[in-house]
Amino acid sequence: LVIIIVVLAAGLVGIFTVYNQTIARSADPMLQQQALAIAEGYMEEILGLPCDAGAPTGLARGTRQSSHDYDGDDDAPPLDIAGQAMPGLGDYRAGVDVSGATLSGVPGCEIRVTVTHTRDAGVRATLTGFTAEVN
Questions:
Q1: The dihedral sign for the CA sequence 127, 108, 46, 69
Q2: Which of 15, 24, 49, 98 gets the highest tally of CB atoms within 10 A of its CB?
C-alpha cells in the first residue's frame, strides 16, 4: 500500500509540473499576436505616407509628411496616430527604423518596425516594408 501511494504521488507531481508550465505559457500566443497587431498598425500608418530622400522633419505624430519622419521612433508604450498612448499596452515597446534602400533598381525607403514585450523577452514581432521614393 505504501509503495502504491509513493508511486501515485510521484506521478501526480510530474503531472502537476507539466500542467503548471502549460498554464504559465498559455498567454504567450496572445502576447505575440498583440505585438504583431501593433507592428502592423505602425507599418500601415508609415506606408500611408510618401518616401522622400530628405531628413526627418521632427513633426509631431499625426502631422508627419513622409515615412522618414518615423525614423528613430522608440515608443513605450506604443502610440496611436495622434501620439496618444494606447491604453492597455503599457508592457510593449515599438521601435521604427527607416533607411534609404533600393529594390529591383527602384530607390525608396526600407521600413522596419519591431515590437517587443518589456516583461517577456520571447515576445517579438518585426515587420519590414518598402515604399518607392517620390520624385
A1: positive
A2: 98
Backbone angles phi, psi at 105, to 5 degrees: 85, 0
Task: Give me the half-sphere count of Cα atoms (radius 13 Å) on the Cβ side of residue 72.
Answer: 7
pTM score, whole prediction: 0.76
> Which of 37-46, 53-62, 66-75, 113-122 has the weakest average pLDDT?
53-62
Q: DSSP readout, 76-123?
A: SS-B-TTSPBPTT-TTEEEEEEEEEEEETTEEEEEEEEEEEESS-TT-
Contacts of residue 35, Cβ cutoff 8 Å, sequence gap at least 6: 92, 115, 116, 117, 123, 124, 125
Mean of the pLDDT values across residues 3-25? 86
CA 46 to chain centre: 14
Of 27, 22, 14, residue with least CA distance to 120: 27
DSSP-H helix ranges across 1-102? 2-24, 28-47
* Neighbouring C-beta atoms of residue 89, cutoff 10 Å: 21
Q: Which residue has the cell 500611408?
A: 48
